[in-house]
Structure formats: structure tokens, C-alpha cells
Write a structure and sequence with these properties.
The complex is a heterodimer. Chain A is mainly alpha-helical. Chain A starts with 6 loop residues before the first helix and ends with a helix. By secondary structure, chain B is an all-alpha fold. In chain B, helix 1 runs parallel beside helix 6 and helix 3 packs antiparallel against helix 6. The radius of gyration of chain B is 19 Å and the shape is elongated. Classes of the chains: A mainly alpha, B mainly alpha. At the A-B interface, helix 1, helix 2 and helix 3 of A face helix 1, helix 3 and helix 6 of B.
């Protein structure tokens, strides 16, 4: 039974629950919008990292360099898409 | 077909390795798909017209439950893949079944949430905010729905054929997809619900 619950996965699950609770703080406590947004950004990115590294084992195969490059590049395009849209549509440039 | 027995089954042939590699590239494209939906949502979330805004319709309890169910399902499918690598077919299938049940629970809550919105008069045509919101949530929900049937199909194949390089590869790729949906949900949870509740 014990070998069915590897430490890495149990830790990953613990981390993801902990990060969810930390993110909840922005609703439960009064704080400035900027601080709340920063907390959300950090916890969400940490959650994504937990999933990628501890659950999806992105670094386990010989392709890991290419995989990291692919994911980082997609994230880069995603960030450019979102910030670029806000830049044009909301921030009034 | 050259089988490298030093690797787990899902990586054991050249073809399998390339399929996993290709799926990661597909996930890169999915990241960009959801990024465009988030971009639309962030652009339109203040355009509530005569309808409600996020703080009025979002309810924390069901959202937390959804988050917990999806995080737990991500955990159990990880355990399923681990059991698969130990060659334990029964444990693997059990974990996959638990994963799919948790996924169904998530979908049930999300469908209930949509029905509630519509009953409150917040439909997809009410305002730009709700159009963007429901497109984003619906796309994620559609992915989970598709994933559920995909998972069922894989379970049937594993039950019939046992664990071999083909079925293990399919099951592993499905697990990548499922984890990815969890990542997307975390961003929805943080930047749609929690952010909507504070502003």
C-alpha cells in the first residue's frame, strides 16, 4: 500500500492545498489591491510549477530541455498576448 | 519496434517518446488558447452593462469545492501513473476511476453554477463581462467533459488489453492533459473568482 503513495506526489498535493489556502487570504483579509494581486500571481505560478515538476514530471525524459523551452515559450506568448491586449485596450495607448 | 526495457512502458519505444513529446507541444498551443480567452476576459470584465458584476454572482463555497475536487483528481491521476509504472494494473485503474469521479463532481458543480447564473438573469447574452466569463469557463468545462470520455475510453482499453507500451502511453498522455486542465483551473480560480470577489 505504502509504495502506491510516493512522497513526491503526496508533497505536491500538500503544496497545492497550502497554496490554495494562501490565495484565499486575499478574500478573507483586508489588503490593498496590489498586494492581493501579487499574492494571487505568486500562488498561481507556484501551483503551475508544482503541477509541471512534481506531477507531470517535465524533467524526467531526455527531451527535457526542449520541453522546458516549449512551455516557457508558450508562457511567453501567453504573457505577451495578455499584456499586449491590455496595453492596447485598457491602458489607453 | 525496438523496446527499451530500461524505461517505463510509456517511453519504451521511439514512437511512444515522440507521442509524449508531441503532446507537450500541443499543451503549449493550449496555453496560448487559454491566454487569448483570459485576455478577452481581462479586457471586458468591467463591461457589465445592466447585468451583475463578478462580486454579485460569484460564490466562494462552490468554487472552493471545485478547486479541491480538481486538485484532488490531479493528485489521484498522478498516483495512477505511478501505480502503472509499478505494473499494478488494478491500482492504476482504481486511481483513474477515482480521478474521473472527482472530475464528474467538478462538472456537476460547474453546471449547477451556470444554471444558477441563468436563473439569476445572468446569461451569456446579458453583458460583455458574462460573454467573456462563460466562454472562458465553458471552454475549460468542455475540456474537462472531453477528458472524462477520453479517460473512460482509456480505462476500457487497459481493462481489455492490460498494460502494454500502447495503452501505457495513452494513459500517460491522458494524465498530462488532466494535470494541464488543473493548471488552467488554478488561473481561473485566482484571476476570475478571487480577483472578482475582491474588486
Amino acid at each position: 500500500m505504502k509504495e502506491l503513495f510516493p512522497k513526491q506526489h503526496v508533497m505536491g498535493f500538500g503544496f497545492s492545498l497550502l497554496l490554495t489556502i494562501i490565495a484565499l487570504a486575499v478574500v478573507k483579509f483586508d489588503m490593498s489591491y496590489n498586494i492581493a494581486f501579487a499574492i494571487l500571481l505568486v500562488t498561481a505560478l507556484a501551483q503551475a510549477t508544482v503541477q509541471l515538476v512534481l506531477f507531470m514530471h517535465i524533467g524526467e525524459s531526455e527531451d527535457k530541455k526542449t520541453l522546458y523551452t516549449t512551455i516557457l515559450y508558450s508562457v511567453f506568448v501567453a504573457v505577451v498576448t495578455i499584456l499586449g491586449t491590455l496595453f492596447a485596450m485598457i491602458w489607453g495607448y | 519496434m525496438k523496446i527499451d526495457s530500461s524505461l517505463p512502458l510509456e517511453y519504451s519505444t521511439e514512437e511512444n517518446r515522440l507521442k509524449i513529446f508531441g503532446f507537450w507541444i500541443f499543451l503549449g498551443a493550449e496555453i496560448m488558447l487559454f491566454a487569448t480567452l483570459f485576455a478577452v476576459y481581462f479586457t471586458l470584465h468591467t463591461r457589465t452593462g445592466s447585468g451583475p458584476d463578478g462580486a454579485e454572482i460569484f460564490e466562494l463555497t462552490p468554487v472552493l469545492l471545485e478547486t479541491f475536487l480538481l486538485l484532488a483528481s490531479s493528485f489521484t491521476i498522478g498516483l495512477g501513473v505511478h501505480a502503472m509504472r509499478l505494473g499494478n494494473k488494478k491500482a492504476m485503474m482504481t486511481f483513474f476511476i477515482i480521478t474521473l469521479i472527482l472530475g464528474l463532481g467538478f462538472l456537476g458543480i460547474e453546471i449547477d453554477e451556470f444554471v444558477t447564473y441563468v436563473h439569476e438573469g445572468a446569461t451569456i447574452t446579458t453583458s460583455a463581462f458574462l460573454s467573456a466569463l462563460m466562454t472562458l469557463l465553458g471552454t475549460h468545462g468542455a475540456h474537462v467533459t472531453f477528458g472524462f470520455f477520453w479517460g473512460v475510453a482509456i480505462l476500457i482499453q487497459v481493462a481489455r488489453r492490460g498494460l502494454n507500451p500502447q495503452t501505457a502511453n495513452k494513459a500517460f498522455i491522458f494524465s498530462l492533459y488532466w494535470h494541464f486542465l488543473d493548471v488552467v483551473w488554478i488561473f481561473i480560480f485566482s484571476f476570475v473568482y478571487l480577483k472578482g470577489l475582491i474588486s
